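Final paragraph of the annual report: two paired records, presented back to back.
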Amino acid sequence: MIRLRRYIKPYLLLLLAAFFFLFVQGMADLYLPNLMSDMVNVGIQRSGVEHNAPEVLSSDAFSMLCRFSDDEDLLKKAYEPLSSEQERYKALAEAYPSVSDPGYQPVRLSGKVLQEEADKAVEKAEAALVFSLQKLSGRSETVSNTSLTREALPELYAAVSMVPSLIREEAIAEAAETDESILSGTGAAFSLLFLKEAGADPDAVRIRYIAGVGGKMLLVTILGAIASLCVSFLAAKTGAGVARRLREDVFQKVEQFSHAEFDRFSTASLINRTTNDVTQIQNILNMIIRMVCYAPIMGIGGAVLALQTNVSMSRIIIAAILLLLTIMIVVFIIAMPKFKILQSLIDRLNLVTREILTGTPVIRAFGTEAHEEKRFDQANQDLTGVTLFVNRVMTVLMPLMTLIMSSISVVIVWSGSHLIDAGEIQIGDMMAFIQYSMMVIIAFLFIAVMFIMIPRASVSAMRISEVLDCELSITDPPQPEHFPEDVKGRVCFDHVCFRYQGASEDVLHDISFTAEAGETTAIIGMTGSGKSTLIHLIPRFYDVTAGQITIDGVDIRRVTQHELREQIGLVPQKGVLFSGDIASNLRYGRRDATEEEIAEASRISQAEEFISEKPEGFHSPIAQGGTNVSGGQKQRLAIARALVKCSPVYLFDDSFSALDFKTDAALRTALKKHTGHSTVLIVAQRISTIMYADKIIVLDRGRIAGMGTHNQLLKDCEIYREIAVSQNSDREV
């Protein structure tokens, strides 16, 4: 599993900012159900009466409450007489018109007692009053918002003064033991009545409270939305930044790969790891910031607030969580193995697609379109089958979660209705409990989704880790040496052996020769004799298994790869051109080459003729891979590119195979003049290409079977003579 710590470290400030906004978003989401509960409980059920202890009371109402209170001293401390000389009088008279009536005699909250203590004292006194009236009348109805009117208050004041002390004391004791929700409802009815007596508009009270709470809900919602947008932006920026750095590191690592590493990782697999797998990491990091960090806030906060709302219904949440965990574990066990298979099948599909697209001419030539269609269809069906299985698992998961959440809502409503009937909770509290329980379940749902996605991302992380942690078979020395300032280019093979990784035997055996500066050394042999492998050892595409290769006496393994390859102009067996134009391709090895230099290189490589025929000349476009030029033109451009570099060592790996004999001869003649002071090594199949070389090396099954000039080898090397005779008649030889 790849460790992302060093990739996340540059984004710590963004992460801290994201966590801050997540906390703000979570607090906003947790606060909304509480506001909704207040709107239902107070704004609707209590007609907007927030406190049981009104801001102002008439002297008659205050005396009545004191008579039925079990803490008369607290009430007297909470309220004090209000006179017209006080500053507070005008404000209260404006809000409550009856305050200025001569017979009203107002008292107001003094502020010496906490509002909560005053509310409890008032609601107990009001409940005791109701219980006393019930005992006198022999009925048990509770007081509602509409059962008393302002006009009935004088009769009420007169009636309560006649309540016997025994009944009053029993009512006070009963009120002290009554449930809080019943006391609150009775207190709201009387408080509204007292506000009416003071001249307040009940509808205005209700609308004012609902509008205030609604405004708070709107502000909290906007704050949560802004925080959510900020979190999304920061999470996306962090995920994209980490993905960019991962791609950079993977690409830079691949750039350091030798042929041995490319033999281990296919091109299609490396492309998939750089794109699809990194995208998986980006997505999972984005979701971790947005979901996994948000889920604990919602889960823990929702559970705590749900317990504060009602403890008895918390069993429902616990049962739902256990059910969710069971489903999550089952899905995890089923889906995890499939995710591992999924990425390998994507690799396989990319590989087949790449082979078919690059090999289209061959496929058409051999008429195997039907076979390749079946091969592609099989890879596609394998991937489709696993993808459909994973998607079906995910498809089943969401309806199950929805069913669980809907069932929980039903159970909470059923259980809450009984509690409401018993007076243990209010309707708003039940509604808030439903929302808190949904928050807890959604938090676990987020975690469940992450448990589904993390296995796939972990597979992608391991695949990326395989590339980043891959030990390079060819590395630069810790203390590199350097070539002399005036590099001659003398290449010496000293008892060189080479074996491919994992092979049981060497493919090159005890190779020793010297390619002198200013000379052309040719290498020829049967197919599979190791010619290209030998050439690839010089730029260290592979490292020798035994022996050493030196340039001007310096072991090539003791200098950096960059310095080594700066001395080499390579023309590969298969010419590779890049998208752009002809000039950009010729300057690929030396960006500062002048127009005259690239023109001279194209003349030597015999590319001048077809370049001049193009309307745009050296600025003619080259398609990706050089698909808009022929094989011979591609080879000549590749040769010209190497010549522009002006290197002391030139390596031509069968680079003249696509040229006709006339062009081949003209190119070799011009090349000899241009590379007169450089070391030239040519791998070729045609005798005519190498017969004028200063030295010819004949390879046979990885060993040197002969070495010398053309005439010497015809006399002394049977293998060379067989190759020569197979290509030309005895007389021509």
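The closing record of the year follows.
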Amino acid sequence: MRLATHAAFGAFLTLGVASVTGLKITPASLGLAVLASTLPELDHERSEIGSLLKPISKRLARRYGHRTFTHSFVGLGLFGLLVSPLLLLGFKDLWWALLLGYLSHILLDVLTPKGVCWFWPSLTPVGFGEARIKSGSAGEAAVLVFCIALSILIYPIVDVGVLGALRNAFGDIDSTYEEYRRLVGSGQQVLLAGELQENATKRIVRGSWPIVDLTEDGQGYWVRMDGALRSVGRGAGRDFYPLRVHVQAQGQGDLASEAPRDPVREWVPLEFEVSSASALLVREGERIEEGQLLGFKEPDPQAETVEELLRSREVRSPVSGVIRRLTVRAQEKGLRVEALVEVSKIEGEKPPSASSLLGMRTGSGALEAQGPSDGRESRAMPEEAAPLEPRGPPPVPVEVYFTPGDGPEQALLRLLRSSQRTIHLALYYFTDSELAQALVEACVRLECRVLLDEEQRSSRYSQAGFLLSRGVPVRFFEDPGIFHHKFLVVDGECVATGSYNWTESAQKRNEENLLILCDRAVAQRYEEEFGRLWADPRSRP
């Protein structure tokens, strides 16, 4: 057989084995396999490889003859020992590629008229009798074309394997996890594409959505859809069920180079890290203020006090503006977040200073805290107007939402997903399934208590049954009057209250208000009231 035929068969055999066994193949390892497929011909002076290394090929030919020692399993074993340092250096995949390339040559030469002596020093050739193919014949050309064609077909499925490729063909979500993990470190945005069914409404949606992270159990995805996080998977409580899906990569450009040119606006790229999908507190299209809390990163292990530890987790914005693009990419530890912020230039307004942007692209990719506030309505004081001495306590971070239009549901979702220690909820009416799911997910990792009006025990659309079925402690306040409270206390530090009931009507149709304020003194007052209500004899499971 000619060199080209051996090279094609070497590539085909290596790719075929890899697609079944999970052997990792790179262009480099495939090239080594092709090179190794020519090495047994060292015992022939006139072969392509023999003519390049004549001193070696002459000695081998005179001592052993053609297609004997180098074409045997003994020669294969010695070649494996010769390249075994690759195993010691941790290049297991390269070692296997070389071995498979060498093996491909002695397997293919069985089809030649003379056969090969697989079991050397026995000189009895192994072959297929009259079915043998002569070098340069039409039969060899057919073998060459066959191997090239199959190699081209196999190469795209090597990473996912044959079974994975079959599952991909049917759009099975289980087949996407391995491909997702492979693409995560490639520097590209990974998308989940295909067809989903929303569990709540049964509507079918088609398209592609950026993957933020795997779900906590590793059996689904968090994807960004319409500026919010949505869960996709087969497990109970997912937002969407995957009908036919696959993952695909999309190139990521530099944020600064992608910023539009606009004389009236300034475009500021931000890069930071958060510890998980639930630790990201902002979304695309949202206005952020300088010093606003964007999310939580991994805590600093060098922190010496509890306050330092908590502060080290905070990621705050160095600028005020609107997030026009937000992408999230998983990495080895935590998530990388990239945002493009539109900062309006008002005449006479001082643009963001160089010092305020300093530390945005740090080694860890995390932002340093730039201000004391994370509220929508609070602003950092301009540098030139900063007083030399404090004039009373700092302002309380406050967020105010009205419906319909302001989207208080998303604010509550961010609050639930950012919780770290406790969640105490007192509500008159609770029918919002998305908030219920977020509450259940939060209650898996921290202490939760939910207190509802007794009507919610049997109301048709109440989420009380769902919460109880997921192990969330729920009590019902039995009283001749209405249990009309609507407040949430998170970690003993932040309170969400107002007229807003956790219902779809409150979100989309009613005229409601929601106030979120983060102040320990205020939160403590609500905690005391919640504790009194929870201990009240009228509060029953």
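The chain has four domains: 3-158, 162-250, 257-347+355-378, 398-540. This concludes the annual technical report; the extension proposal builds directly on these records.
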